[in-house]
Design brief:
The chain contains four helices and 44 strands. By secondary structure, the protein is mainly β. The strands form eight sheets. It has a 22-stranded antiparallel beta barrel. The protein has a five-stranded mixed sheet with strand order 1-6-7-4-5.
């Protein structure tokens, strides 16, 4: 019923705004392209949370899902996990000035973030034959005048809790489950930033310096005991300095980006218990240059990252009945790590009659060093009973490399003014090298992407493309294959005094082995590939309105998986289910290819309606229906339920039971509406609405036999490939946010006061359900509470 109401409200808003706002014949404010989306500086300043890229990803980007439940959390200290066009979050790309800034230490995240004042927009590019920067780009145009700007901003959080009279909007509301329910997932106890910008132009040259200091204290739920919490502190410093010179036929630019981060409880944002979190101190530097001319475009950078990860609690005991089923065994990565990365990109465009040609090459080489710290041991309990203990053996310092090389040709041929053929042909080489093992891995794969643009200069454009493309091999595969990482012996735990605190002498029979020394490569492993079909339709309704439809179908072949190299057990029928039990210590985990009877796949349909006039008003409506399915590592949450994750649980046959289900990034349906206009001169109103289906998850059954616990999914996660309900989803997330911007003259310059109210209605959506409940819906948390952000910016 509520979803029908949402649809009616969306349609009503569309009709009212279409009739109310009379667009004149001005240049449209939006790009009409369906395969890329630009979020301009005007939107960034005037929409609630627009300055935070995490808010853009969560609330405004039309066809992706941010999987860390960052709904108005304003976090700059968390590693984002982004699900876009059906690819693993580890495959997501980040760009600055056309240069790859992917982190080599945290695949899927950016190595650096930019200060607020240096960002003039965001661009999200889909994968097509002619898009160069698939993924996310920080846009950073130089100011058009000399300027010094100071901005201060503070968040006033935790303004009340859920709104009781809106509980009818959430089916089976969590407020009826007081035996396990906490309040909100996350509370901001302190959240402010200070930002500085200085820009000078001299002749045909520009210089810019931008700085941001961000400080946050957050409160998270502690699921060790009911109604307890723990606090995390975090602070980060961001710097960007740029020099840009206009050339006769192009531009030259040199830049440097620097980040420093200090936080006390990394992974708390993923729902980890406090003892499973870690302190983090990290620095990152990216410096590079750009030479962009008509006949040559060259970009290169050097990137250095360093981080120190320290345990919150040494030798902690792991609860196997993890509350949300995200992790079951201790596998923290602790110690000191560094990565030095070289990036380069070259494009040489030219024409031969009607044939446009671009020769391109991209190179990325990362050298990663690790000196890992280990626990002495980690006890594992199941409920109130001691189960096993992992005795860790220290690894050794290591160095490994990750090399990615692409070279190819882009073709564009115009059959007529209205029809063009676009294509990309490439060779893609990937190599993982290790100093101390035989796990070196190398693939050289061809790729092709061919598209046809129809009715280019007509009211309606059509773009259809089909590609067979290799995947990148990201650094998380290096981490898995590094044999010098710590290893451990898993033994039965004879808790003689019953205190659930492991002491020397309580280890029993060996159950198995874990860690780097037991990870190997299948000699027959093949390179992961994707087959992607794309259909974009874009219609210009008027000079100010555009209607786009974007459809994708993607099939993933040869995806990586893990299997035991030997036969370590047997099957037995228990309660009508064939379960696997180990009868000897397991030890070898082999990197191989996905062998489930169904290939992973992704499909989406995006409907996108947008309009506006530059610097006057805007309106945007998007509705995404998508589905992503496959077999992943065992568990719920982004650390396991993702097609790029490598986890030893994948080798246990019990993890395959009901395993082919929706993956973490699948949100089924997402609707986003936002608009803005001047109420009066210098006073601008920005409003955003969001509806997002809940996270798919599976309840987990357990059975004890043969001195071991067998865990398996009770159902698949969420719906099957036909949309028929198979398993549960967490509650949907919906919110409304409002922001007022007032611009005024001050001290010979300009000022801007911004007042934003986030999650205004605060319905109280359920999050983080208990998965060992025997299939009863047992929510534990509400979404982030209502808050207000007040900001002041002064330009001189």
């Amino acid at each position: 019923m509520f979803r029908k109401s949402i649809c009616r409200c969306c349609l009503g808003a569309l009709l009212i705004l279409f009739l109310f706002i009379n667009g004149t014949a001005m240049e449209t404010y939006w790009s009409r392209s369906a395969e890329s989306f630009v979020f301009s500086e005007f939107l960034l300043e005037n929409l609630p949370g627009g300055q935070f890229f995490s808010s853009f990803l969560e609330n405004y980007a039309p066809d992706l899902a941010l999987t860390i439940e960052e709904s108005n959390g304003f976090s700059l200290i968390d590693n984002p996990r982004v699900y876009f066009e059906g690819d693993s979050y580890t495959q997501f790309n980040w760009h600055y000035e056309g240069i790859n800034i992917n982190s080599a230490l945290n695949p899927g995240a950016a190595a650096v973030q930019l200060p607020f004042s240096s960002i003039t927009g965001y661009r999200l590019e889909g994968e097509t034959p002619d898009n160069r920067n698939y993924g996310f780009t920080f846009l950073t145009e130089m100011p058009d005048k000399d300027i010094t700007r100071v901005q201060v901003s503070n968040l006033f959080g935790n303004l009340g809790s859920y709104t009781p009279w809106l509980t009818f909007m959430s089916e089976g509301h969590a407020s009826t489950r007081d035996d396990r329910l906490y309040t909100t997932r996350r509370k901001n106890l302190k959240n402010y930033f200070i930002d500085f910008l200085h820009h000078n132009s001299f002749g045909d040259s520009n210089f810019l310096l931008s700085l941001t200091y961000y400080d946050v204290v957050r409160q998270f739920n502690d699921f060790n005991a009911y109604d307890t919490v723990f606090e995390e502190t975090g602070r980060t410093f961001l710097m960007n300095t740029r020099y840009k010179k206009e050339l006769e036929s192009g531009v030259f630019e040199a830049f440097a980006l620097f980040n420093y981060l200090d936080r006390s409880n990394r992974d708390a944002e993923l729902g980890a218990l406090p003892q499973e979190t870690m302190g983090e101190k990290s620095t990152a530097l990216v410096t590079g240059l750009v030479l962009a001319k008509e006949s040559l475009d060259f970009r290169a950078s050097f990137q250095f990252e360093k981080e120190e990860l320290t345990p919150f609690e040494l030798n902690y005991t792991k609860q196997m009945m993890d509350n949300d089923g995200d992790s079951f065994f201790p596998n923290q990565k602790l110690g000191e790590f560094s990565a030095a990365t070289l990036n380069a990109a070259l494009n040489i465009p030219f024409k031969l009659n009607d044939l446009g040609i671009n020769l391109f090459a991209k190179a990325r080489h990362a050298s990663i060093k690790g000196a890992e710290q280990v626990h002495g041991f980690n006890g594992i309990v199941f409920g109130d009973s001691a189960y096993q203990v992992v005795s860790w053996l220290g690894g050794s310092e290591y160095t490994h490399t990750n090399t990615d090389l692409k070279a190819g040709i882009d073709f564009t041929y115009d059959f007529s003014p209205h029809t063009s053929l676009v294509s990309r042909v490439l060779i893609h080489h990937r190599r993982l090298g290790f100093d101390n093992s035989d796990n070196n891995l190398a693939f050289t794969s061809p790729g092709i992407d061919v598209g046809l643009k129809l009715f280019k200069n007509k009211k309606t454009n059509v773009y259809v493309a089909y590609g067979i493309l290799p995947y990148d091999i990201r650094e998380n595969v290096n981490t898995f294959l590094e044999s010098s990482r710590p290893s451990g012996i898993i033994s039965q735990w004879n808790d003689l005094n019953g205190d659930l605190a492991y002491q020397a002498g309580e280890s029993g029979n060996v159950f198995g082995y874990t860690g780097g020394a037991y990870h190997f490569v299948d000699p027959e492993v093949a390179a992961p590939m994707k087959h992607r079909f794309l259909l974009d339709v874009s219609t210009r309704l008027s000079s100010t309105w555009v209607f786009n439809v974007k459809g994708i179908y993607k099939r993933i072949v040869n995806n990586f998986a893990l299997r035991h190299a030997g036969d370590y057990g047997f099957y037995a029928n228990r309660n009508g289910q064939e379960l696997f039990f180990y009868d000897q210590p397991f030890q070898d985990f082999q990197l191989t290819n996905y062998d489930y009877r169904k290939d992973p796949f992704y499909a989406q349909l995006l409907i996108h309606f947008k309009g506006g006039e530059k610097d006057r008003w805007f309106f945007n409506f998007s509705f995404l229906a998508h589905i992503g399915m496959g077999v992943t590592a065992f568990g719920n949450g982004i650390e396991t339920s993702d097609m790029g994750t490598l986890n030893e649980s994948m080798a246990n046959p019990n993890s395959w039971i009901n395993g082919f289900g929706r993956i973490e990034g699948d949100r089924a349906f997402m609707g986003k509406i936002y608009f803005g206009y001047y109420l009066v001169d210098d006073l601008f109103l920005g409003v955003s609405f969001k509806y997002r289906d809940g996270t798919p998850f599976a309840f987990i059954d357990s059975l004890y036999d043969y001195n071991q616990w067998a865990l398996y999914y009770t159902t698949i996660k969420a719906e099957n490939e036909k949309g028929i309900k198979g398993g549960p989803r967490e509650d949907y997330v919906g919110d409304m946010s409002v922001q007022l911007n007032w611009r005024f003259p001050m001290f010979g310059g300009n000022g801007r006061v911004t007042l934003g109210v986030y999650n205004l209605l605060d319905i109280g959506h359920e999050l983080s359900e208990y998965v060992f409940s025997g299939s009863s819906r047992d929510a534990m948390e509400f979404s982030i509470a209502r808050s207000i952000r007040l900001s002041l910016a002064l330009d001189f």
